Amino acid sequence: MTMPADAVAMTRAFRRGDLSPVEVAEEHLSGIEQLDPQLNAFVLVDHAGARAAARASAERWASGTPRSDLDGVPTTIKDIIAMAGFPMREGSSVTSPEPCDHDHPVVARVKEAGMVVLGKTTTSEFGWKGITDTPAHGITRNPWHLDHSPGGSSGGAGASLAAGIGVIAHGNDGGGSIRIPASYCGLVGLKPTFGRVPQHPVDSPYISLVSNGPLARTVTDAAMFLNEITKPDHRDWHAVPYDGRDWRIGLTAGVRGMRIGFTTTLGGAEVDPEVRDACRAAVDALEGMGAHVEDAGAVVEPLRPRFEAYWKAGFAARLRTIPEERRDELDPGFRDLAEQGLDVGIANYYASHGARAELVREFKSWFGGYDLLVTPTMPTVAPAVDTVYHSPGFDRWDHAVPFTVPFNLTGQPAGSMPVGVHSTGLPIGLQLVGDHWEEATVLAAMAAVETATGWTWPHPALADRLAGLATA
After folding, report:
1. pLDDT score at 93
2. Which domains are assigned to the chain?
């Protein structure tokens, strides 16, 4: 049979006995062997672990005792969280090569669900930028076009999933790092509310910006992954109490009566006209489904003046942990910003925390009149792989995160949905943002976009590319 592309169809086949997790694991491991030399999306592949997990899953399905609705489904873990028995290099050569002795909460929940972990995927160094290339591991490429980036920092997750490797991928998002590759790779991506998904450790200066979540091919698959990774873990005192909900419930509720504000100029952003038009068409479709849509305008002032020092100060905190004699090994862009951050004083740093509180108040006031804020996910489609991040040609605030980073600063849930293909042949993403703890609203709207666009993986433009990669 044709290998199912989504978890729902795959586990249905497991339940009927038409397909085995062992067959699926072998198919995906073969896909890595064939495609990853071109994509460079994996830092390590756990052949033995994946095969053992697949065999155990096959036995559970045969006996009618699957651990979860994702038992046997292949996944990947971004190499910026811990997985026991393997190093956590965070895209860097200066981190420890020793294997971790514990699992991050997401990894623990994935294993408990019976999922098959294929390996760990690439990230930009310490997750610092929205494209994925590092001195330690080289360039990760987008299967839609190998000369373009899959985005970042969850670039390996996006590239491999778009190429057909894995069914759901783990990513995490401290400035757009799930939503950026989702947009650039034509995938579903969800950043949950900060605190919805437990984390460990929680000692990073950026911890309150970061949420772990899924990259997927369907909204339902994303909701199923959220079901597992939101389960409790005592190691995270930030985490909201677990409520046991099934995030698939309400996905078909639609958007009738939802109050939606739409903007392509959030915080003064400027957008490629084709991106603007594709997003406008998707929002018009939501209006046709009964949503009340209004143009929202800029909503907030540009964020750079309030938060650039805060951004750099976090890098400086990491730089202080790295011996001076090894700093030449770092991504030059990261090192430059981190060294600038060494001059950020404690008063300036804490003023940024006050600015975050004010930003939350601004959005809380806005959400008093709306259920969703809808924007393009990215101002443009995926940049070329030789793009220098945070340069005049690709400024971080103008070109990379104007639509995504506000909701890391506020902690709100936000998802990205594919809504079209640019004339360059690269996908376009739409971002849907909810108020705190309103993942259900975001997911329902994402599902409505999925219905309206009829987007399925692989899009014909991507299918042609994948056929070429498979024969290369």
Report:
1. 98
2. 7-471 (3.90.1300.10)
| Least confident residue range of 22-26, 199-203, 318-322 | 199-203
Give per-residue burial for 42-77: e unless 16+ CB within 10 Å, then b: bbebbeebbbebbebbbebbeeeebbbbbbbbbbbb
Distance CA 173, CA 152 (A): 9
Nearest CA-CA partner of 25 in 66, 67, 74: 74
Look at residue 463 and give its three-state secondary structure.
helix
**Cβ(409)–Cβ(383) under 8 Å?**
no
pLDDT band at 432 (very low <50, low <70, confident <90, very high): very high
Among 124, 177, 211, 352, the one annotated catalytic: 177
Instruction: Evaluate if residue 96 carries a pLDDT over 60.
Output: yes
Q: What is the mean pLDDT of residues 433-447?
A: 98
Active-site pick, 20, 57, 68, 78: 78
pLDDT for 1 beyond 60: no
177 in catalytic set: yes
Work out the end-to-end distance of the chain between its first and last CA atoms, rounded to an integer number of angstroms. Answer: 24
Mean pLDDT of 455-465: 95
* 3 state SS of 189: strand
**Integer Cα distance of 425 and 93 in angstroms:** 34
What are the tokens at 105? 């909460």
Q: Residue 14's closest CA among 87, 67, 77, 50?
A: 67
Examine the residue annotation and report whether 191 is marked as an active-site residue of this protein.
Answer: no
Distance of CA 125 to the CA centre of its chain: 16
Percent of the chain scoring above 90 in pLDDT: 97
Alpha-carbon distance 195 to 236, whole Å? Answer: 9
Nearest to 150 by CA among 170, 120, 122: 122
Residues 110-133: tens digit of each pLDDT: 999 999 999 999 999 999 999 999
- Among the listed residues 68, 124, 153, 211, the single catalytic one is 153
Separation CA 15–CA 387 (nearest Å): 46
**pLDDT at position 470:** 75
